[in-house]
Design brief:
By secondary structure, the chain is mainly α. The chain is built from nine helices and two strands; from the N terminus they run H-H-H-H-H-H-H-H-H-E-E. It has a single domain, classed as Glycerol uptake facilitator protein (Up-down Bundle). It starts with 14 loop residues before the first helix and ends in an 11-residue tail after the last strand. It comes from [Myrmecia] bisecta.
Length: about 280
């Protein structure tokens, strides 16, 4: 899809970039709100694994299709990151500058907080500071160790961010169906991992409810560590597969794929005018 994983080419204080930051804020707000509540009023991370009398659980589809819709909305404005793990990966591969990437992540985290606050106002019985059991709070299930929680979140986030790279940076790209593929990937990961960790796959998604409802602070760092490392690993793997514009990576060796127009002798991408321009 044109715009997926693309950022405005304007400078840091340009109207284009401010619009992109607003898009990341609003997108993260809406994803925390819509993705945090299932059709049955249960929060992702609170849906119990059923052993009898099973009822169809549409939580994976609700989360995946919500993400796809929000990426469609924001892709042509901000690149449709909506996930600090995605932004971190693209910072590492040079598709977004560190300065812009940090602002993106801040907007995503703040948006998630406001999304959780809005959820508290819209869901009956939900209250700020409610604690354990609040809407959208993530935690591991009984029998799942902290190490397993970390491992599941790392693996699932790695898969999600790898798919983002594949549909947005890989050749040939997947065009307008890219956001849908990303959303379906999230649905698949939620289907697999929700019974163990609640399947966050997004540092902002777990951050907002934790801050607003004061739930499971002692688990936040495990989710963040797994998700950020999963995104980082996906970015590192994407470098030799799809190329990079990061000078420090390009200097490591000529065996890695380089973007079209890269001038190895000059040591920079000939088509890039400045650090604040180009792809995410």
């Amino acid at each position: 899809m044109p715009g997926l994983l693309q950022i405005p080419s304007g400078r840091f204080y340009s109207g284009q970039f401010l619009a992109a930051v607003l898009a990341e804020f609003v997108g993260s707000l809406l994803f925390t709100l819509c993705g945090g509540v299932s059709p049955f009023g249960k929060a992702v991370g609170q849906v119990q694994f059923k052993t009898e009398g099973a009822v169809a659980d549409f939580t994976p589809w609700g989360n995946g299709l919500t993400l796809a819709a929000l990426v469609y909305i924001t892709a042509n404005v901000s690149g449709g990151h909506l996930n600090p793990a995605v932004t971190l990966a693209t910072m590492v591969t040079g598709h977004i500058s560190v300065k812009k990437g940090c602002v993106y992540i801040l907007a995503q985290l703040v948006g998630s907080i406001f999304g959780a606050l809005l959820t508290a106002g819209l869901v009956p019985g939900a209250e700020v500071g409610q604690g354990i059991g609040a809407v959208g709070c993530f935690h591991e299930y009984a029998g799942v160790s902290p190490g397993q929680l970390f491992g599941w979140e790392l693996m699932m986030t790695f898969v999600l961010v790898s798919v983002v790279y594949a549909v947005a940076v890989g050749e040939p790209n997947f065009g307008i169906v890219g956001p849908l593929i990303v959303g379906l990937t999230l649905s698949a990961m939620v289907s697999i991992g929700s019974q163990y960790t609640g399947a966050s796959l997004n540092p902002a998604r777990v951050f907002g409810p934790t801050v607003v409802y004061h739930c499971f602070w002692n688990r936040l760092w495990i989710y963040w560590l797994g998700e950020f490392l999963g995104g980082l690993a996906a970015g590192i793997v994407a470098w030799p597969l799809y190329g990079t514009t990061a000078p420090w990576l390009l200097a490591l060796g000529s065996w890695s794929r380089q973007p079209e127009g890269y001038d190895a002798a000059a040591g920079k991408a000939a088509h890039t005018a400045s650090e604040d321009e180009g792809r995410v």
